[in-house]
Amino acid sequence: MTGDELERAIQFLLESQAKNDAQIARNDAQIAHLAGGFAELRALVREFAESTRLFAERADARLERLEQNAERRDRHLERLEENAKRDDGRLQRLETALADLAEEMKSLIHVVEGHVTDEARHRRPPG
């Protein structure tokens, strides 16, 4: 190899090395940027996990309260249904008693009308 060829080869190697050093510097900057972004992402994921945990706890507590309220309302509804059945029986007995009373009233009215009619017949005209 001649001196010129050796000089060109050295120049080529130096330029290549400079390009490689520049590329490495750019890669290092990108890696540092990505590492920072990754750290931020990890922090966001931790915050999201904590928020999700708190949300799940609150949702569980609310669900528990809803289930307790539903159970109370079911028991209340059962009592209302029992009361309605008792009231239906009472209402039926009352209707029967009213029907009996109406029959007795008719009989009483018939008797009273008969007495009034008899009295009117036996009453003497003034004179």
What does this structure look like?
The longest helix has 120 residues, at 3-122. With 127 residues, the protein is mostly helical. The termini are far apart. The mean pLDDT is 93. The protein has one domain (1-93). It contains one helix and no strands.
User: Which sheet architecture does the biggest sheet show?
Assistant: none
H-E order: H
Whole-number tally of structural domains: 1
Low-confidence runs (pLDDT<50, min 5 residues)? none
Helix content: over 70%
Q: How much of the sequence is in beta strands?
A: under 5%
What is the distance, rounded to the nearest whole angstrom, between the alpha carbons of the first and last residues?
A: 176 Å
Q: Which structural class should the secondary elements be placed in?
A: mainly alpha
Number of helices: 1
Q: What value does the Rg take, in angstroms?
A: 52 Å
Task: Give the overall shape, derived from the CA principal axes.
Answer: rod-shaped
If you average the pLDDT, what whole number results? 93
The beta-strand count equals 0
